[in-house]
């Protein structure tokens, strides 16, 4: 089992920055990929950024050049640095951890943290 807890959300103005952090505990060594997703009411959850244990990173087109995902293995945290925020970045942001074991693959989610960007 893996437990995830996000922090760092809040209310900012357009153009400002926020840093989200996800504290991971449990069987973190078994995780193959870490990610951040976001969701607004009535909409599907969308991938924002993903990072594999091999260091490969990928981002949604809407956040490329503005968001950076990173992991601090010593502290067991996964971070999302969000710069030049826009009102359309407003959403609940969720931390995600994925263990790839074929049919026994597992995905874990945090409880989410609200990010609100005012114009």
Jot down its keywords.
single chain, 119 residues, mainly beta, seven-stranded mixed β-sheet, four-stranded antiparallel β-sheet, 56% strand
> Rg from C-alpha positions?
14 Å
Query: Which stretches are low in confidence, meaning pLDDT under 50 for 5 or more residues running?
Result: none
Inertia-based shape: globular
What is the β-strand count? 11
Q: How does the helix and strand content classify structurally?
A: mainly beta
Task: Please report the distance between the alpha carbons of the first and last residues.
Answer: 40 Å
Order of helices and strands: EEEEEEEEEEE
Beta-strand content bin:
over 45%
Count of separate DSSP helical elements: 0
Question: Helicity level, as a percent range?
Answer: under 10%
Kindly report the average pLDDT value: 96
Biggest β-sheet strands, sense, barrel? 7 strands, mixed
Fold topology:
Blueprint: E1 2-7, E2 10-13, E3 18-26, E4 33-39, E5 46-52, E6 57-59, E7 67-72, E8 77-82, E9 91-99, E10 106-109, E11 113-118
Describe this structure in words.
With 119 residues, the protein is an all-beta fold. The chain is 0% helix and 56% strand. The chain is built from no helices and 11 strands. It has strands spanning 2-7, 10-13, 18-26, 33-39, 46-52, 57-59, 67-72, 77-82, 91-99, 106-109, 113-118. The strands form 2 sheets. Strands 2, 4, 5, 6, 9, 10 and 11 form a 7-stranded mixed beta sheet that branches. It has a 4-stranded antiparallel beta sheet with strand order 1-3-8-7, with no helix packed on it. A hairpin with a 4-residue loop joins β5 (46-52) and β6 (57-59). The radius of gyration is 14 Å and the shape is globular. The termini are far apart. The model has no long low-confidence stretch (mean pLDDT 96).
């Amino acid at each position: 089992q893996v437990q995830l807890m996000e922090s760092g959300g809040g209310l900012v103005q357009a153009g400002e920055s926020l840093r989200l952090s996800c504290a991971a505990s449990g069987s973190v060594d078994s995780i193959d990929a870490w990610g951040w997703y976001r969701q607004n009411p009535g909409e599907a959850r969308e991938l924002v950024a993903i990072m594999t244990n091999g260091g490969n990173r990928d981002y949604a087109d809407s956040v490329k050049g503005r968001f950076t995902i990173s992991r601090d293995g010593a502290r067991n945290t996964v971070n999302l640095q969000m710069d030049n925020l826009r009102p359309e970045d407003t959403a609940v942001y969720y931390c995600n951890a994925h263990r790839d074991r074929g049919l026994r693959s597992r995905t874990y989610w945090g409880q989410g943290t609200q990010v609100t960007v005012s114009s």
